[in-house]
Please model this.
Amino acid sequence: MRELDRRGLRRLLLIQLIATVVVATLAWAIQTQAGMSALVGGLASLAGNLLFAIWIFAPYKAQRPGSLVSRFYLAEIAKLVVIGLIFATAIIWLKPLNVVALFGSFFVVQVLSPLLAHSLAE
Model:
């Protein structure tokens, strides 16, 4: 993989981390539980995306294009499992839980990826 691609990926993940902190801080200003829930939601999105990126951008043999396709499917399944486990853990252990902040923060951080990916690739 080219160095530019690695830099763009790092920048995208850093932007997601910054967005998580900003959203959690804004939610924290409203209510402490909302801030904690927003932090967990943003980190769930970031953790899933980080796992996906590590899985996809690991070295592979170009002679086997079918293996790349299966890697995408497996990475997406692993990402969904990790996010689901984080949400389940938050719902079970985070009391009181602000569901709107949890899923709202997750949504904001998750939507940043497709919105910023094109501009970071240039």
Observations:
- The chain has a mean pLDDT of 86.
- Helices lie at 3-30, 32-56, 65-93, 99-121.
- The two ends are 15 Å apart (CA to CA).
- Residues 65-93 form the longest helix (29 residues).
